[in-house]
Amino acid sequence: MRFFIVIHLFICSPEHKFKIITRSKHNNTQGLGVSELKNKTVLLLISKPQLLNPIDIFLLVQQTCDHPLNERLRESYKIVWIPLPFSDTWTEAEESSFNFLSDSLAWNAVQKPRLLSSAVVKYTREQWNYKDEPIMVALDSKGKVTNYNALDMIKIWGPQAYPFSASKVEELWQDQNLTMQLLLDGINPFLAYWVEQGKNICLYGSENLVWIQQFNDKITEVKRAGMQLETIYVGNSQSGENVKQIMARSGEKSFSDPLSFTNVQYFWLRLESMRRSKLRLGKTPSSDHVLAELSALLDMDAREEEWTVIGCGGSSSTDIFRLQGMQVMEFVRKCSEWRENITNLGFFGALRNFLDLHLLKGVAITHALFPLEKMKG
């Protein structure tokens, strides 16, 4: 009964039978009764009629409908979009936006949201803390609210986060270290393959064209010397025309393996979601090493610093280092000093040894991220 009590909050009026607009396999739309949602996990996406910005929509679609794991869970959960107007009444622009998006999106939607009662809007704002920013409220198969906002966990883990409850968030983070798999999962199938193969990966970000040119020249020398290292340019969180131009130039000269501009935006959206998710759990950078490193990376980006993150693929590998621009230039310039140690120590052992040596010599590598077991000690 609880299911119907919660869902029937969204009955528009006594004379209007609640329906949702749903999509068939052939992309046709039809109105279905609320009983179609019974015994399923339901995600209520609540937003303004304009929904999210396009890149957020694309990422959500990729992490739900288009995700490889979604086929197995397709009938276990449903997303229903419930748009609420900015004020008490719908404007013509809001109506137009809803009609267009409900016809275009892969999710279900309330059929006539303009008829939702003021009590519904009040309940959503007061009980679910809706403040005009999109939220995704998760209900279990009995209609119980299990998460007041599942958006970030879906951006991070996609269907792996099913059933999208708050307890599932805690479970997913419980044993999660900072790995290349966490940073790159869900962005691009090619990157997923690299991670699965355990390749050495170097992410780098900046809008400083001079530094990028110098970095790429040095990395090219390192690769020619036989170093196995895949480089990926991820721009910055404010990805604009400068980043597009740098990406185009890097692709033309084969400096790094190209991501699409959209993939770069996915990368930053997921980092922000990871930080918010950790903070929502009450974590702090001083007590949580993953949050500390995510925050440090995002802070470097906010200060418009050059940076790199060098790590090894694999689901459990915690061989990962974060370096500022000048630090990584020192690292690649002195490649000959540590390259000979790779045979005995491996790539990351040689890198760790090099950084330890230069720390002992007083070289400032204050923002280097050492393997997590070292941090814990």
TrEMBL record:
<dbReference type="InterPro" id="IPR027944">
    <property type="entry name" value="SEO_C"/>
</dbReference>
<dbReference type="GO" id="GO:0010088">
    <property type="term" value="P:phloem development"/>
</dbReference>
<feature type="domain" description="Sieve element occlusion C-terminal">
    <location>
        <begin position="168"/>
        <end position="356"/>
    </location>
</feature>
<dbReference type="Pfam" id="PF14577">
    <property type="entry name" value="SEO_C"/>
</dbReference>
<dbReference type="InterPro" id="IPR039299">
    <property type="entry name" value="SEOA"/>
</dbReference>
<protein>
    <submittedName>
        <fullName>Protein SIEVE ELEMENT OCCLUSION C</fullName>
    </submittedName>
</protein>
